[in-house]
Amino acid sequence: MIRRTYLTMALASSLALATTSSCIIAVGNDRSVMTPKASPEAMSPTLGGKLYTSAWIQRSAEYKALCHQAYNIATERLLAATARGGHRWAIVTDIDETIVDNSANSVHQALKGEDFTQASWDKWCDQASAIALAGAIDFFRKADSLGVQIFYISNRDEANRAGTLRNLRSLGLPQADDQHLMLRDASRNSDKTARRNAVLQQYEILMLLGDNLGDFDHVFDSKQEQTREAAVAKLAREFGRRFIVLPNPNYGTWEPAMNGGYLPLKKRDKKLPQLLRSHP
Question: Half-sphere exposure of residue 67, counting CA atoms within 13 Å on the CB side?
């Protein structure tokens, strides 16, 4: 039984951030002072953790450095491949937490004491105010200038198409049109294999970019941690070559894999201390 762990100290830090009388949190393109509505007693450890990871995304130089690192590697791969010529190259990229930062929506929900909701997400997408990750715009503009096709394969819903295109275009991202934006269909199946295969019918995929490993191969959509970890080991040589990973501590398939499914918030809160390693 875990009595006192590093987790409790981390959660205490999260709660301190979440329950101060005024927290400075970046929302959209601006930094605003926001007063949380949840009391210390009501704040979920999971949501408090999302506030803390959002703070890292929004405020740390380290996060920006990791984004630059990913896009620098991607640029090297791009230049090396296109210099050889003779290929119909395409790049397949995710959008959320790969090109744009949606942590403002995570903060908005956590400060209300709420987890992700489809209604809040749809409203955020329609707002079209997500900012770009460091290095993203320059990379995709370079790819476009070299004649590479860019396919934005996202698990946003078709209902989010108009807002998504407005957001991409407002950031100056190239090829942001209906032909190159491939969203999840009405079945709401998150497997991107069929969409990737559709690109392969006409182009060679030079690289794939994403924050969730399911952006690269369907094997990573598994809800079994052992399956995902085995696939990482098997495909280890692809990372930094064909697969470019962007950091995202806020959400992903790792959560249901860790929890054994999409559990209610209270069950995740109760289970969290039991899942982490701690010294005696």
Answer: 22
Which CATH number does 65-98+133-249 carry? 3.40.50.1000
Distance between CA atoms of 214 and 189, rounded to whole angstroms?
12
Q: Report whether pLDDT(144) > 70.
A: yes
What does residue 213 show for φ and ψ, rounded to 5 degrees? -65, -20
Residue 82 near residue 89 (C-beta atoms within 8 A): yes
173-185 pLDDT, tens digit each: 999 999 999 999 8
In order, the DSSP letters of 179-238 are TTEEEE-TT-----HHHHHHHHTT-EEEEEEESSGGGT-GGGG-S-HHHHHHHHHHTGGG
Contact 186, 198 (CB under 8 A): no
Please, what sign has the CA dihedral across residues 109, 113, 114, 120?
A: negative
Tell me the C-alpha to C-alpha distance, in Å, between residue 267 and each of 1, 9, 12, 206, 253. Answer: 18, 20, 19, 41, 17
CA distances from 15 to 19, 36, 104, 272, 277 (A): 6, 11, 18, 15, 21
- Rounded Cα distance between 182 and 195, Å, is 7
In the numeric block, the tokens 């495909």 are attached to 235
The Cα–Cα gap between 82 and 38 comes to 52
pTM greater than the 0.90 cutoff: no
39 band by pLDDT with thresholds 50, 70 and 90: low
- What is the DSSP secondary structure assignment for residue 21, as one 8-state letter? S
Contact 212, 248 (CB under 8 A): yes
Any bridge partners for residue 132, and if so which?
100
CA neighbours within 13 Å on the CB side: how many for 146?
A: 25
28: nearest Cα among 99, 101, 97, 110: 101
